[in-house]
Design goal:
homodimer, about 140 residues, mainly alpha, Arc Repressor Mutant, subunit A, two-stranded antiparallel ribbon, 2 strands, about 50% helix, DNA-binding
DNA sequence: ATTAATTCCTATTGACATACTATGAATTGG
DNA sequence: CCAATTCATAGTATGTCAATAGGAATTAAT
């Protein structure tokens, strides 16, 4: 029942971009340094985000990545589902899954409730929420 | 973000015992047949439930297993945590976990919310709820 | 006392996923 | 031209999953 590093790093990566959302491209090397994550591994992760047009890449020297949308427009769910695949706790509550036991199966009730509960959380937190939380937290120690 | 067969089978196994809770021991072979699960695999799973005293075993011919408590007293969370280990979506929201980034880490907010949401579900469904649901469902077609 | 049915215990296996590392090509600003 | 960057693909070590396998121990029924 774990979220892998892929999803976790993707979220930190996107949050990092949201916090450095100046219009200038942010290099992966910088993100990797700030987040203390292997840059080579981050390359693979951002490649997925890039192909899905969640970020735009600028190649060459001084290149990097920028968000394609406003932080408000990314939910945590979008990012996790893209990088992790489905967040469903079991295959049988995923879209168009078919199981012969389905009609008999009582435990599927539990999986559906877990699924709904998780979706409710991840689909209502945006990158902007996390960015604001982090910025506010940073401000707490100013005075 | 998946629950493994171990936890899923454990829940079906326990529900099967709740539905056949006559006081007579139920053999694993029968459970395996009803649930269409490998009996050899179920042996390993029930061994965990047995060591935790969630079930009591009766050895020898005509032996089997019985629940040690009333179905009302088992939550889905108890059964899943025992067989799956922690249900936390990431290690850092588990009890007494320590991570240097903890104080900086904004994404942990997300994991905590997921964790709470899942716990809220699994800790409020009991075996009796599932048993009643299944019995009621079976009755629907009587007339 | 024997047999058959059962639980109990431990080891092994094949497939797959995870979390990277490695290598090098392509692109581009300075 | 060069250094910094993204892009693409391959490899790898480790671990987990989902069983399967084999047999020992126990006990009710005959």
């Amino acid at each position: 029942m774990k979220i892998s590093t892929k999803g976790r790093y993707a979220l930190r990566l996107m949050l990092d971009l949201a916090l450095n959302n100046t219009g200038e491209p942010v290099s992966l090397k910088d993100i990797a340094k700030r987040q203390e994550i292997s840059d080579k591994y981050l390359e693979q992760i951002i490649s997925v985000l890039n192909k899905a047009k969640y970020v735009q890449s600028i190649r060459g020297a001084q290149g990097g990545y920028v968000l394609t949308k406003k932080p408000e427009e990314y939910t945590v769910g979008m990012i996790l589902r893209l990088t992790e695949g489905s967040l469903a706790p079991v295959a049988c509550v995923e879209e168009d899954y078919n199981c012969e036991r389905m009609s008999d199966c009582t435990t599927v009730l539990v999986w559906k409730k877990i699924n709904d509960a998780v979706n409710e959380v991840v689909d209502h937190i945006t990158l902007a929420d996390l960015r604001d939380y982090e910025m506010q937290k940073a401000g707490e120690y100013v005075i």
